[in-house]
Amino acid sequence: MVRLPISVIIPVCDDFRVLDCIDSIDANLEIIVVLNGEYDKKIESELKKRKIKILKMKKFSFSRFYNLGIRNSSYNLIFFMDADCIFEKHTLFKLYKKTKKYDIVKGKVIFSFDSLISKIIAKAREFTTSDFPNLYIPGVIFKKKVFEKIGLFNTEIDHAADAEMADRIEREKISWGYLPNAKIIHAPLNIKDDLRSAFNYGSGRKQKHLFQKKEKNPNFLRGFLKYLIEGTRRKGLIVGIYLSIWYLFFFLGYKSIKQK
Question: How far is CA 19 from CA 94, 129, 202, 251, in A?
């Protein structure tokens, strides 16, 4: 197994798919799992059997999970992964080679499905997440000097801290590479989990706007129609209808955060 100077950071609470994620890593590198909240002790036991570096944090906050992992990492290259995703073969090696040219490299997230419902959700996630190059987690590898230059993840933002980090990267004009043949496979999603994520993304977006002091008042009808019409045009009517529902939950999440 090839040795790579990469630290992979994976936050998890009670999702046993993190073990599949770890098993899909086809390189000798550092794996850091951040156990959070009331985590499952059985997961901790399995991680110890695999001799995985374990960190713990009570407060739920992705930005804090990432920062804790960065501070405790051994290598100069940091890769951020989700527990419900796996690596396609050679993905980490492909990303590593690309870091010879760029300080940040993003792979492509592929949303898998195993039913009609999860296929609709997968197509909707493509629309919101993976049809265009971006720096959303999972699938991004950073050199540590990026964080030394622009700072760690913003702890004022619990969800979607990667979006605020992407804003800083753009503002500092840091170039980054996109490698669509380096693939991360996301497990099939169900409606409950996906709409919960939409709500969380909305709350994270509001936290980001409050921090940046550019709070916006999104027009619900305009956003709803945009997702419905554009989603239908690009992904079909059924996906467009689902996307309009997804936007409703995003909007509710946005409105749930009040200015302090």
Answer: 22, 24, 29, 34
Containing 133, the helix (H) or strand (E) segment is none
Amino acid at 25: I
Pair (182, 224) in one structural domain = no
Indicate whether 92 and 134 sit together in one domain: yes
Alpha-carbon distance 42 to 219, whole Å?
45
Q: What is the model's pLDDT at position 118? A: 98
Q: How far apart are CA 211 and CA 67, in angstroms?
A: 18
Cis (ω within 30 of 0) for the bond into 138?
Answer: yes
Q: Mean pLDDT, to the nearest integer, of 251-258? A: 94
- The two structure tokens encoding residue 70: 């960065």
Q: Are 95 and 15 members of one domain?
A: yes
**195, 121: one domain:** no
Q: Provide the number of structural domains found in the chain.
A: 2
